[in-house]
Design goal:
16 helices, Transposase_InsH_N, flat, Tnp_DDE_dom, six-stranded mixed sheet, 496 residues, single chain, 6 strands, alpha/beta, Transpos_IS5-like, IS5 family transposase
Amino acid sequence: MYHHSEHQMLLPNDFFLPFGGKLNPDNRWVVLASMIPWWKVEEAYMETLKDLTQGNQAYSVRMALGALIIKEKLGTSDRETVEQIVENPYLQYFLGLPAFTETAPFDASSMTHFRKRISREMIDQVNAWIVEDQQSQIDGDGDDDDDHHDTPSTSASSDEKEGKEDAPRTHQGKLLIDATCAPADITYPTDLKLLNEASEKLEAMIDALHGPFRGTQKKPRTYRNQARQSYLFIAKQKSPKRKKVRKAIRKQLGYVKRDLNHLEELSWPSGIERLSSKQYRELLVIQELYRQQRQMFKTKTNRIDDRIVSIHQPHVRPIVRGKAHMNVEFGAKLSMSMINGWAFLDNLQWDAYHEAADLPGAVEAYVQRAGTYPEAVLADKIYLTRENRKYCKERGIRLTGPKLGRPPKQESKEQKKIEKQDAADRNAIEGKFGEGKRTYGLGLIRACLRNTSETVISLQVLVMNLSKALREHSFFIFFMYLIQGVRCSKGYPEVA
């Protein structure tokens, strides 16, 4: 059951505080609450609910999405997020509560359901609404200033003075695009470690299926002690030789195969339904893991398609990044674009892909957001494919980077200046990645499921844009106070 609740927003002065006083309207959480179009989000949120008239009362979209934003903004756990909400009246106002309460509005376990219900596509749409609203406010402020000051984009030309209209601009602004990896919270996977974990989980499944026959039928022999000792003998060595590791992997493959055969024999009299849903999912993953490891062992290779690196999170894939400190990362690969400092999540996949294919889509998305093609696309060298060069050339877009063929013997000072400025401007998206990974948790995704991990990644991009909007709002307030002080010092009346 769900009722509309976001069509009329509560003002800070209407929020009841039992200990007296009023909320500060300039507080960051009050300002953030006014930036998010809750009524639009509610319409998209209601489409995810199965039945709007029956069942228990569902939490409002402001409660659900607001709690997730608070968690990513503060970088806390689910339990700590609920504790912060209980202690802070501003956080309760941000969640849409009418008055301060000392009881938790929801249990910490509900945060998992919030992440499942609010999809990545919904958060990306919220991000687009917020950026569009902030850009419209900036453009509106600029239109007011145009009454007194001319800018290059809005100043009248000589043709306009003669009664002629200029042709509309087809290229404006710069598009920054790059890709990175959002590592998942898993241990560094090795073949030996994965097989040992698979063996231990299979032994627990054998115990579950053999339970009804305990005392009447002999339990299958699993050699669990020998398998554990064989694993620890190699795992405790600092730098074991390749032959020893390969011998240990062969032994673990034998133990896993034996356990799988025992499970197949026990599933007929006992029934596979005695396994829990989690164990059944892990059994399917282990069967595929055994097939991959056996094939790599026979062919003496370390590569295979859709390689499983975590039994608990089988959707995670190895992403080769070629970084100096870490050649391979394990998580989701995402492509992000930036326009005037605003970040947009263009692509997110768990399988490794070539990010150069995202450039045309990012340019078309820029056209939808800005209404024009960008003057230049600032990207890494990996984006400089022939297809991308041709795509940008046909549309009159300057793609940064060296041209094909032999480099010129001498470059003009103007060309060097443009290349230096492009390199400096492109650092902004690298800084945005650093902000997300150091401040908002993009460097380690702790969600376990595939869809919830995608939700968390989109939330972090949304929170980065909200932080940018909050900084611009604070700067605007400071600028207004500064102008107010100057006017008062000169004897002018105060600005309302």
